[in-house]
């Protein structure tokens, strides 16, 4: 089909923000590389986040103006009174070619896809999948140490193992912390009662920072940010959608009441953007089956656009 002129949101193939589709990573030549990981077999109770990359892409077509290719039009932010993402080029690299029952193979493919994107000097934007995928993604950042990970989540995901399993969505940041290039995990919004005090003690004893939802509500983001060592460095952002309040993001395996707002997550991102370099983002645990309103994936898209804007906003 000839290139469309009006390119309305509901026409054409749903790539992320209608970005050009670049399935062969050797052809990648863009500032932002979006890649899906439709994998949720590390989920215990309510699987379905394997469908999230497709649902997020579909929702993202509402913002097709970002993806026209070489020169994105960007968008105007009324609160900051400036355009964001102007001239930033996007590519949608499709999905990691996962298969069921073979986590080792899937993790190797995830690692090598992210490695290739980083070699092409594009910003990886990862659409999960469940949270187990963050570990093989972070393995690919060995050249980016010391790396700090900003985690938005209701849960610590720092269990050493669950029933002997070391790579479920309960453990990605325990595994990530074992990587020599990962310096620190900084978590916001923690509140799930299945995160144990042992997990919390172990994480803190390793030098990680853990901020609960009430820390955010009562102290505010700026005060919490003062506790982060004032080093300019590389930051990776991992957004588990259950870190947000289930009133706005209900479509997720483990919703927990009293979550963060989009405003609070944006404040965290803006503080990170002002102190370091954002080198990647994943957004995980969106389960489209659990939200017929599709609000969750629409919020996911807005969070991703805000995060990508943070990476390129030098004003
Ligand atoms: Mn979670
Ligand atoms: Mn998580």
Your description of this structure?
It is a single chain. The chain is α/β, with parallel strands linked by helices and 315 residues long. The protein has a single domain (16-312), classed as Arginase, Chain A (3-Layer(aba) Sandwich). It is 29% helix and 18% strand. It has helices at residues 52-60, 103-119, 134-139, 172-177, 197-205, 213-219, 221-225, 262-275, 295-312; strands at residues 32-37, 75-77, 82-84, 90-95, 123-128, 147-152, 182-190, 209-212, 234-240, 277-284. Helix 1 (52-60) packs across helix 9 (295-312) and helix 8 (262-275) runs parallel beside helix 9. The N and C termini lie far apart (39 Å). The site of one manganese (II) ion (MN) has 7 residues, from loops.
